[in-house]
């Protein structure tokens, strides 16, 4: 049986949102409750995340932005993205979970991992958080993978929203391929098929905009016809 890790920590529950905010800690509470009572749980390797270093974060984000996040405390990074007292700590462990997964894969301890983290990350750009996202966890992980010796990284983004932050991180980069399926047009407004990268990164961004309400058939075609 292939070794699959599940990476989680209760620190993610300390990232508190205003009442009725859709990016609620209860999402993770529900996932953990359901998963721990399922037949799948005994098959997983439970792992705790490490805390990402500032060097790890700086591989993607500007120092001034990191200082802003670190010092903000309570408040909004933008109209949607709220920070509570423990958000910065949770965000470091969210990015750290990806690093933990990559490090364990590299060492041969696991073959894959699911990182159940928050705050999320794929909308966060180098100098700003948005769309509930503080640090770009996957982008930070991609750079860490390269630090470990993986010359090329392929990022697959599966979400109703386009990951503008991840695309932004590697748009001019030919060492990271970014592939995304998402509803379009939709928040945040990026992700058209014409966005394919620029400079050395031309051709290393592949967006597949999907219409509202598409089903399994269209998604299957997108991944099996386009991704292969």
UniProtKB/TrEMBL annotation:
Q: Which GO terms describe its molecular function?
A: histone deacetylase activity
Q: Which InterPro entries match?
A: HDACs (IPR000286), His_deacetylse_dom (IPR023801), His_deacetylse_dom_sf (IPR037138), Ureohydrolase_dom_sf (IPR023696)
Q: One Pfam family from the UniProt entry? A: Hist_deacetyl
Query: What CDD domains does the database record attribute to this sequence?
Result: HDAC_classII (cd09992)
GO process terms (BP): epigenetic regulation of gene expression
The record's PANTHER family line, in alphabetical order, gives: HISTONE DEACETYLASE HDAC1 (PTHR10625:SF10), HISTONE DEACETYLASE HDAC1-RELATED (PTHR10625)
Family named by the database record: Belongs to the histone deacetylase family.
This one is known as: Histone deacetylase superfamily protein
Its lineage reads: Bacteria, Pseudomonadati, Nitrospirota, Thermodesulfovibrionia, Thermodesulfovibrionales
């Amino acid at each position: 049986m292939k070794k699959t890790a599940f990476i989680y920590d209760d620190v993610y529950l300390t990232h508190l949102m205003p009442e009725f905010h859709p990016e609620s800690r209860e999402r993770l509470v529900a996932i953990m409750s359901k998963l721990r009572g399922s037949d799948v749980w005994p098959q997983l390797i439970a792992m705790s995340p490490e805390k990402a270093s500032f060097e790890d974060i700086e591989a993607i984000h500007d120092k001034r932005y990191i200082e802003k996040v670190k010092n903000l405390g309570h408040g909004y990074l933008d109209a949607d993205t709220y920070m509570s007292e423990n958000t910065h700590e949770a965000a470091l462990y969210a990015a750290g979970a990806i690093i933990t997964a990559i490090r364990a894969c590299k060492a041969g301890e696991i073959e894959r991992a699911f990182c159940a983290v928050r705050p999320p990350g794929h909308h966060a750009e180098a100098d700003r958080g948005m769309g509930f996202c503080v640090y770009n966890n996957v982008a930070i992980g991609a750079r860490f993978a390269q630090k470990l010796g993986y010359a090329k990284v392929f990022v697959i983004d599966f979400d109703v929203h386009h990951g503008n932050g991840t695309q932004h991180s590697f748009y001019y980069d030919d060492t990271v391929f970014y592939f995304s399926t998402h509803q379009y047009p939709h928040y945040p407004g990026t992700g058209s098929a014409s966005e394919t990268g620029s400079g050395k990164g031309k051709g290393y961004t592949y967006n597949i905009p999907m219409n509202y309400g598409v089903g399994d058939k269209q998604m299957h075609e997108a991944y099996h016809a386009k991704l292969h």
